[in-house]
């Protein structure tokens, strides 16, 4: 039996750094990222495009091209360090203990094989099944994801299916071996709104059914609100805040998180209100600021911010934040924040 | 599917017409009176004039063309004045050696080039990759007749492993048949092999970066299966294209290699016929070659459907 308690640690990423060797020298796309996932828990990873979400996710399965990639730190899955596994050990973890769903369902399935073939492949790799058994299991998995006529779909090629259906196939494939951890890298970004929420519901449901830990990568805070229990906010390769979903939405600590929240469009709010955008651009990986990485865009930045990099520090019970001044900012914003929350509850 | 094939076959007619016009014009622009050439320098002007009349060379060119092309459409390619036999018969007699040579060169090229291209892509940037690509560059730049002469000298004359030249039909035994064709096939196929190896490498590199390869890895698929099952089949589509496009060049190149190795193929037939001003044979052979090009391309197009389900279903 596994996953009796929610408190049991499944995955622990500790001080992960990912360096890429490129033609223009080494870049560090992920710089000291730590977070953990318990069994059955859904952790959201959010941040702007390019902040290192996918690199972090793919590091967990070591999917990056290791000829040009150097890792530092630890990725402990059930206490074993994935970064130290041999290649054949790694292949036993992939698709079996840990599965992944990717952003673009249109290009994530092999165009020259039927979807059934691709699900069966995963089953035959990790489970002691005959081809026949695997085939009926594939149909069963497709049915589980709510694809109509699974017996027919199983023999179709990816191009015969819609984007939403392909993502369901990806989910069926990822879950076919009952993984303990599912990594979903923006699984709904490429889909239309209705399909988006269907897919999210599906992942949520199956997660409970399988008691699966889940990492939900997204830049959509709406998705976080819908499915996550904990959120990790990333900026330029670093974790800048970690908190429960409730506290991220009610009292975000980091100025960047506050900006992200302010930039969500409010359906109920006054129409003429201009959408808030965080000013400035994300620096590139080759010109990372020496102090706080957010300093060039931060309205609260001071001397120390530009000079020294803040560390990710724990605050109260479950919160972590990387900012020199978060306490002062918290005090300053106190009143304003309260009224904002009030108006939200009134509206919803 | 049947409709598609029929359409492709019908498209042969305009191709034939254009080729026919071009060949016909070329024949009539090149100097040298066929009647005079056939009869030799000793013939009297009266004899030459008589033969011209007999061959229809005195009629206006347009009339000559129309009557010739009309016959072609009915499957009659004319009769060789020199060999005293129908052109199509002469053509098909010489086709065997050429086809054998071209197919053998093609098979050799594919069998050697695809594994090399796959390995080069898989171990991109390694010594292996650099060596293979260096050799392939050599393969592209060395002309086939030069390579052929070199092979004759080294393998045929020095080492005496294989016959120096000549041709044995398959009736003389398959082994014998192949023994005579190995050197010419290497000479002919080396450029083809180099092109295919390069295309395989670049196409494999593209596909190895595809998202579905990442998906396959994330399932725990072994790297050899990734390369063979997931990558190669997808990479094969552009490889097939280059094979199809260059098969024509291969057949054309066969003429040169046939001369070097003294193989009685189409190349020799055409070269000899040019020397003899045997118009009917030249025109007929070139036309028949054009037809085979179109047919080969049709087969290649049908093969796409076998490899790629998207093509298959798109044609329904
Ligand atoms: N193989 C690589 N070599 C060099 N740099 C890379 C490589 N892969 C990713 N990067 C860089 O690492 C940074 C993080 O990329 P990543 O794909 O993780 O962003 P992301 O947060 O997933 O963004 P998105 O929301 O657009 O998917 C980017 O600046 C990217 O350019
Ligand atoms: S450390 Fe300074 S610059 Fe960085 S987020 Fe905090 S206040 Fe802003
Ligand atoms: Mg990404």
Descriptive notes:
The complex is a heterodimer of chains A (348) and B (316). Chain A is α/β, with parallel strands linked by helices. Chain A folds into 2 domains: 3-235, P-loop containing nucleotide triphosphate hydrolases (Rossmann fold), CATH 3.40.50.300; 238-342, no CATH class. Helix content of chain A is 36%, strand content 22%. Chain A has an 8-stranded mixed β-sheet, sandwiched between helices. In chain A, strands 2-1-4-5 form a 4-stranded antiparallel β-sheet, covered by helices on one side. In chain A, strand 9 (230-235) and strand 10 form a beta hairpin. In chain A, helix 3 crosses helix 4 (131-144), helix 3 runs parallel beside helix 6 (163-175) and helix 6 runs parallel beside helix 7. Chain A starts with 8 loop residues before the first strand and ends with a helix. The model of chain A is unreliable at 337-348 (pLDDT under 50). Chain B has 316 residues and is mostly helical. Chain B has 2 domains: 2-73, no CATH class; 93-144 and 188-311, Orthogonal Bundle (MetI-like fold), CATH 1.10.3720. Chain B is globular, with a radius of gyration of 24 Å. Chain B starts with a helix and ends with a helix. At the A-B interface, helix 2 and helix 3 of A face helix 10, helix 11 and helix 14 of B. The complex binds adenosine-5'-triphosphate, iron/sulfur cluster and magnesium ion (MG). The site of adenosine-5'-triphosphate (ATP) has 14 residues of chain A, from strand 1, strand 2 and helix 1.
């Amino acid at each position: 039996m596994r996953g009796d308690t929610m408190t049991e640690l499944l995955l622990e990423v500790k001080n992960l750094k990912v360096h890429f060797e490129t033609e223009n020298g080494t870049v560090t796309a992920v710089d000291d990222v730590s977070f953990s996932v318990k069994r059955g828990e859904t952790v959201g990873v959010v941040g702007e495009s390019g902040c290192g979400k996918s690199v972090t996710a793919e590091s967990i399965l070591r999917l990056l091209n290791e000829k040009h990639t150097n890792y530092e730190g630890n990725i402990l899955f059930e206490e074993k360090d994935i970064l130290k596994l041999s290649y054949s050990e790694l292949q036993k973890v992939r698709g079996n203990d840990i599965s992944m769903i990717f952003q673009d369902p249109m290009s994530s399935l092999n165009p020259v094989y039927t979807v059934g073939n691709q699900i069966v492949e995963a089953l035959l790799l990790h489970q002691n099944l005959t081809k026949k058994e695997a085939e009926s299991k594939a149909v069963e998995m497709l049915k589980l994801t709510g694809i109509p006529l699974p017996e027919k779909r199983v023999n179709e090629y990816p191009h015969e299916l819609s984007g939403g259906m392909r993502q369901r196939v990806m989910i069926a494939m990822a879950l076919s071996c009952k993984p303990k951890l599912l990594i979903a890298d923006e699984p709904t970004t490429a889909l239309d709104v209705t399909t988006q929420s269907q897919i999210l519901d599906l992942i949520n449901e199956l997660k409970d059914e399988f008691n699966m830990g889940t990492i939900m990568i997204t830049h959509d805070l709406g998705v976080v609100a819908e499915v996550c229990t904990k959120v990790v906010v990333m900026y330029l390769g670093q974790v800048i805040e970690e908190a429960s979903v409730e506290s991220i939405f009610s009292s975000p600590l980091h100025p960047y998180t506050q900006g992200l929240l302010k930039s969500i469009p409010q359906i109920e709010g006054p129409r003429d209100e201009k959408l808030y955008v965080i000013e400035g651009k994300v620096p590139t990986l080759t010109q990372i600021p020496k102090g706080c990485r957010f300093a060039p865009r931060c309205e609260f930045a001071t001397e120390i911010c530009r000079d020294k990099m803040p560390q990710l520090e724990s605050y109260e019970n479950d919160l972590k934040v990387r900012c020199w001044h978060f306490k002062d900012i918290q005090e300053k914003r106190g009143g304003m924040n309260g009224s904002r929350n009030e108006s939200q509850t009134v509206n919803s | 599917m049947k409709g598609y094939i029929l359409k492709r076959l019908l498209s042969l007619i305009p191709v034939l017409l254009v080729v026919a016009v071009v060949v016909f014009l070329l024949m009539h622009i090149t100097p040298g009176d066929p009647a005079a050439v056939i009869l030799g320098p000793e013939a009297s002007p009266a004899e030459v004039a008589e033969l011209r009349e007999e061959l229809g060379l005195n009629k206006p060119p347009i009339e000559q063309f129309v009557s010739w092309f009309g016959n072609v459409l009915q499957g009659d390619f004319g009769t060789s004045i020199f060999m005293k036999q129908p052109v199509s018969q002469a053509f098909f007699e010489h086709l065997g050696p050429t086809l054998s040579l071209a197919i053998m060169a093609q098979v050799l090229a594919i069998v050697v080039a695809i594994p090399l291209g796959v390995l080069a892509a898989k171990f991109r940037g390694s010594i292996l990759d650099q060596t293979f690509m260096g050799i392939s560059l050599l393969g592209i730049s060395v002309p086939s007749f030069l390579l052929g002469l070199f092979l004759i000298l080294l393998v045929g004359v020095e080492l005496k492993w294989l016959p120096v030249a000549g041709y044995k039909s398959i009736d003389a035994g398959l082994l014998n048949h192949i023994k005579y064709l190995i050197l010419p096939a290497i000479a002919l196929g080396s450029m083809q092999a180099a092109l295919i190896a390069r295309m395989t490498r670049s196409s494999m590199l593209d596909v190895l970066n595809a998202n579905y390869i990442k998906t396959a890895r994330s399932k725990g698929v072994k790297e050899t299966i990734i390369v063979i099952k997931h990558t190669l089949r997808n990479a094969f589509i552009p490889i097939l294209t280059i094979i199809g496009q260059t098969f024509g060049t291969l057949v054309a190149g066969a003429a040169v290699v046939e001369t070097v190795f003294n193989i009685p193929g189409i190349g020799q037939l055409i070269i000899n016929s040019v020397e003899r001003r045997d118009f009917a044979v030249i025109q007929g052979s070139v036309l028949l070659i054009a037809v085979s090009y179109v047919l080969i391309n049709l087969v290649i197009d049908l093969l796409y459907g076998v490899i790629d389900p998207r093509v298959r279903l798109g044609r329904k």
